[in-house]
Amino acid sequence: MEKQFLVMNPAGIHARPANAIMDKAVTFSSRIVLQKDAKTANAKSMVSLLKLGVKMGETVTVVTEGEDELEAMAAIAEILQSHVD
């Protein structure tokens, strides 16, 4: 499953949102990847997420694969579209 999201957090995906994404991602058995341009990040790795360098207003693609991919997609989407400080 693949879907694009506009990042709404004023600071982009910095430490706190990256931590929130990682904390949620590890609860799923599915593979969860975020993509920006030619870069990809494992959603279960905070360092990987921070290396994407995503800023507010940029679009990221979320790819989920596995038995709970729908739930994983919904959970990550909620974080990306929120304003986690």
The CATH topology turns out to be: Histidine-containing Protein, Chain: A
What's the mean pLDDT score? 94
The CATH architecture term is 2-Layer Sandwich
- Name the CATH superfamily assignment: HPr-like
Oligomeric form of this entry?
single chain
Strand content: 25-35%
Q: Kindly, what is the distance between the CA atoms of the first and last residues, rounded to a whole number of angstroms?
A: 28 Å
Reading side by side through the largest sheet, how are the strands ordered?
1-4-2-3
Largest sheet: 4 strands, antiparallel
User: Based on DSSP secondary structure assignment, what is the total number of beta strands?
Assistant: 4
Counting H and I runs of at least 4 residues, what is the number of helices? 3
| Category by helix and strand content | alpha+beta
Q: Uncertain regions: pLDDT < 50 for 5+ in a row? A: none
Organism: Paenibacillus pectinilyticus
InterPro entries: HPr, HPr-like, HPr-like_sf, PTS_HPr_His_P_site, PTS_HPr_Ser_P_site
Keywords: Cytoplasm, Phosphotransferase system, Sugar transport, Transport
Protein name: Phosphocarrier protein HPr
